[in-house]
Amino acid sequence: MATQQSRPRIGVLVLSPDFVKSFRLFHLRRKEMESQEVSYNFV
Asked: What are the boundaries of each domain within the chain?
């Protein structure tokens, strides 16, 4: 059951490169914000 449910999700990600791009940009932005917050905390 678990494998059958995970297959369509991977297919959707592969079929929608725009979604992957937006998700990557959002993830990178979150990483940058987190790194900035950490640096501010250290200072």
From this structure: 2-42
